[in-house]
Structures are given as C-alpha cells and as structure tokens.
Amino acid sequence: MRLDDMAARRHAAVTLDVGYRWSRGELADLVDEELEQLLDALQRVCETIEEQVTEAQFQHFDGETVDNAWFARARHALKAKRRICNTIQSLLGVRRKERQEAARRTVENEFVQQARLALPPEQFQQLLARAEAVVAAR
Asked: Distance between CA atoms of 55 and 49, rounded to whole angstroms?
C-alpha cells in the first residue's frame, strides 16, 4: 500500500468515527491536530450519553420503565469513550512534555555554546566544573 493511500485511509478514519474502538497504537499514529479533533468529538459524544443516562435515571426514579439492556450498553459505551479520552489526553500530554524537553535541551545546549564563545576558556572551565560538581552532588 502506498504512503499516500495509507495517509488517505488514516484521514478517512479520523473523519471522526467516534464509535470505532481505537487502540493505543492507532491513536499514537495520529498527529496532535487529529487527536484533538477526535478528543473534542468524543467528549461531545460523552456529554450526550451522560445526558441520556441521567434522563433515564430520572425516568426510573419517577417510576417509568427503563430498558435495562439499553442502560447497561449506554454506561458501557460511556466508560469506553472516557477511557479513549483519557488515553488521548495522556498521549497529548506526553508529546507536549517531549516538545518542552526538546526545546529546553536546545536552549541549554545553545547557552553552553554561547558561554563557550563569550567567556575566557579558564572561566568557562571553572563554571563547567562547578556545574558538574552540583550535578554529581544530586
């Protein structure tokens, strides 16, 4: 299968099939924008299911008959969708943290290079030795 075909299939899948049982691997293959779109759609579906379940509970408390099989399926669907939402939020958080760490490392590396250029060699080595001592003491 060509890469373009795979991308088209993936994009079609993200055309937000909130009923699909997304695996962690499939979610990890999506880009952040796709994950955010899917998360938004899933959260809207969860809100709708919650409203329906709450309405059914009120009907039950009012003495009306509620389809127990429907109620069980709705609660199961809600739990499954919430798990997917949690997984997506976790993935987005990990990616955000990785980007922040990469940016921090880049800034630190650039700072060291600029210090190396701006400071006399003996002063740079003194600062480097002091930093190494602090890290070793941790």
From this structure: 10
